[in-house]
Amino acid sequence: MEAYGLEITENVAVETVPNPFNERYLRTKKERMGHSLHFNK
Q1: What's the whole-model pTM score?
Q2: Which of 10, 12, 28, 29 could cysteine-pair with 35, CB 3.0–4.6 Å?
Q3: Residue partners of 27: CB distance under 8 A and separation at least 6
Q4: Is 36 exposed, middle or buried (0-12, 13-18, 19+ CB in 10 A)?
Q5: With the CA atoms of 23, 28, 29 and 35 taken in that order, what torsion angle do they form, in degrees rounded to the nearest 10?
Q6: What is the pLDDT of residues 1-41, one digit of tens each?
Q7: CA distances to 26, 39, 40 from 9, in Å
Q8: DSSP secondary structure of 14-34
């Protein structure tokens, strides 16, 4: 993003309620790729 002149100033977590179709996918993103996801269940 720096190549486009953009500066990252903060990382904002996404809060979501997983459903049976995306829960495994979202947890994988959090665990393997370090995404900031907070699950409200």
Answers
A1: 0.58
A2: 29
A3: 18, 39
A4: exposed
A5: 100
A6: 889 999 989 888 778 889 999 999 998 998 998 888 887 76
A7: 24, 24, 26
A8: EEE---TTTHHHHHHHHHHH-
